[in-house]
Write a structure and sequence with these properties.
seven-stranded mixed beta sheet, 11 strands, 120 residues, mainly beta, 57% strand, single chain
Length: 120
């Protein structure tokens, strides 16, 4: 299973960006899909994740500003980011948990990351 992100870039403080992540390959099922981010010199942390049933968990720092959504038919997860702040600057990674070609073997998948830079 491969994850490909798109939608990152440079934006001014207060602006918006929408990230997309498409999963492809030998997908049997995808359970949770989500987004993590890693700022320079810091650990990778959860931004938001969503289950196939629509249950959402978000970091407190993004609640009210970021919205995660998912299109199960397209194996795609989105992250709408509004009211962006300089502290949101990071590489954003798509993550998915599910089963690929080895049915019955849970796996975790990561995208290559997309840079989001918010200027003040």
């Amino acid at each position: 299973v491969q994850l490909v992100e798109s939608g990152g870039g440079l934006v001014q403080s207060g602006g918006s960006l929408r990230l997309s992540c498409v999963a492809s390959g030998s997908i049997f099922r995808l359970d949770t899909m989500g987004w993590y981010r890693q700022a320079p010199g810091k650990q990778r942390v959860l931004v938001a994740r969503i289950t196939s049933g629509g249950n959402i968990k978000s970091a407190d720092s993004v609640k009210g500003r970021f919205t995660i959504s998912r299109d199960n038919a397209k194996n795609t997860v989105y992250l709408q980011m509004n009211s962006l702040k300089p502290e949101d600057t990071a590489v954003y990674y798509c993550n998915a948990e599910g089963e690929g070609q080895y049915i019955g073997v849970p796996e975790e998948y990561w995208g290559q990351g997309t840079q989001v830079t918010v200027s003040s």
